[in-house]
Design brief:
The protein is mostly beta strands. The chain is built from one helix and five strands, in the order βββββα.
Length: 82
């Protein structure tokens, strides 16, 4: 699956390993990702494309805020405790 701006991805490497994030920008072999908590939309993290796994989910970035991003990611990947 191609990664594009708005794609929801999982980090495969680094201190944010396993965290869901949204791609805010692409640049050659790198993507810029944000999760709204550790990495805000105005200061996204630069990651190698090899270090993220795309999902089949997309988000609209035009009216996205950090709060809306945190809420959307939490709703997409909620885990039920049993």
């Amino acid at each position: 699956m191609d990664i594009k701006a708005g794609s929801v991805v999982f980090s495969l490497a680094g201190h944010d390993k396993g965290r869901a994030m949204v791609v805010t920008k692409l640049e050659n072999e790198f993507v810029y990702v944000a999760d709204g908590k550790e990495r805000k939309l105005d200061t996204p993290k630069k990651k190698n494309k090899k270090h993220v796994r795309p999902t089949h989910k997309l988000m609209e970035l035009s009216e996205l805020t950090d709060k809306k991003l945190r809420r959307a990611l939490a709703e997409m990947f909620m885990r039920t405790e049993e």
